[in-house]
């Protein structure tokens, strides 16, 4: 399979180079579709969500030997996108009983903007913080090389590659190369793109993630604890899948059961029954400390000169 993948990569690269020399439009979308078709034809192990509508859109679930892209529209949504990535790894560890470390690679700019994974926030996802290796190469080219080396080593149960925007040095050819490396190694590669737009890619699936309001916490008897904050909720949109039109889902990640559920309508949330503040003005205290002091005796002094 690896020899066939390398030959297919060389063929696509030659076609793109010929198109550049002839001054024609780069057939990126066509090449991406051909690559995606080849990946699906080979099959592979999948990670189901156990949500029928979502699993049907993903043709059974996420491929665990392929490139999957998770995209956020801006750095404001970086926390939600990173949390969703960790949820996927937690789901994989819970369903597949996968053991071993994971590698988180971030380019220098993204590492400065989003920071490194926080141990206290990672542990509730079912991931041992000591099993996360973080790398922040100065150049994107070095980060690409590190991602390929990590996949070829097969030492990590998952590799997360975090970038920002749509850099010129990471395009269709680079994503295809990473996808082929993931398939040859049989390991998942999760591309986390912040503040980037949709572009042609060899990723098997691409999802955009936005934060959603958390619902109230449910008690053991099934009742809802009003005014509480429950599990994290994500709004995801499938931008690349077997469906011709984008599909959106609101998913709630259960930190205890380590699985996803379709979240309820937030308009029915008890958190929205009352405003945060009624708007009634409070009376002014008569003996507050910041009252202006009374002035003492005022004396006139002659000018010195």
How many domain regions? 1
DSSP strand content: 15-25%
Low confidence ranges: 31-42, 269-276
Helical fraction:
25-40%
Q: How many strand units?
A: 13
Q: Determine and state the CATH class.
A: Alpha Beta
Query: What is the global morphology?
Result: globular
SSE topology string? HHEHEEHEHHEHEHEEEEEEE
Give Rg in angstroms. Answer: 26 Å
Number of distinct helices: 8
C-alpha end-to-end distance: 98 Å
CATH topology grouping: Rossmann fold
Averaged pLDDT, please?
80
Q: Let me know the CATH homologous superfamily.
A: P-loop containing nucleotide triphosphate hydrolases
CATH architecture: 3-Layer(aba) Sandwich
Structural class assignment: alpha/beta
Query: Within the largest sheet, what's the order of strands?
Result: 5-4-6-7-3-8-11-12-13
Major pleated sheet: 9 strands, mixed
């Amino acid at each position: 399979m690896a020899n066939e993948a390398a030959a297919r990569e060389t063929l696509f690269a030659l076609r793109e180079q010929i198109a550049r020399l002839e001054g024609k439009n780069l057939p990126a979308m066509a090449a991406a579709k051909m690559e995606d078709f080849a990946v699906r034809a080979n099959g592979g192990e999948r990670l189901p969500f156990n949500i029928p509508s979502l699993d049907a859109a993903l043709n059974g679930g996420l491929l665990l030997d392929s490139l999957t892209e998770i995209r956020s529209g801006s750095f404001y949504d970086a926390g939600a996108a990173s949390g969703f990535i960790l949820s996927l790894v937690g789901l994989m560890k819970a369903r597949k009983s996968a053991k071993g470390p994971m590698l988180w690679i971030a380019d220098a700019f993204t590492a400065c903007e989003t920071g490194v994974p926080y141990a206290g926030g990672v542990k509730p996802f079912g991931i041992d913080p000591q099993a996360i290796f973080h790398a922040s190469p100065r150049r994107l080219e070095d980060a690409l090389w590190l991602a390929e080396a990590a996949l070829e080593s097969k030492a990590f149960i998952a590799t997360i590659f975090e970038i920002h925007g749509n850099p010129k040095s990471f395009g269709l050819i680079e994503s295809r190369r990473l996808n082929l490396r993931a398939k040859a190694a049989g390991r998942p590669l999760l591309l986390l793109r912040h503040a980037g737009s949709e572009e042609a890619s060899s990723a098997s699936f691409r999802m955009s993630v936005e934060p959603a309001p958390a619902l109230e916490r449910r008690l053991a008897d099934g009742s809802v604890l009003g005014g509480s904050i429950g599990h994290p909720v994500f709004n995801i949109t499938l931008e690349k899948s077997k469906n011709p039109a984008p599909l959106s889902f609101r998913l709630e990640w259960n930190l205890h059961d380590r699985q996803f559920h379709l979240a309820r309508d937030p308009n029915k949330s008890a958190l929205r029954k009352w405003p945060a503040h009624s708007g009634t003005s409070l009376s002014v205290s008569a003996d507050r400390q910041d009252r202006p002091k009374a002035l003492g005796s005022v004396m006139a002094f002659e000018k010195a000169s």
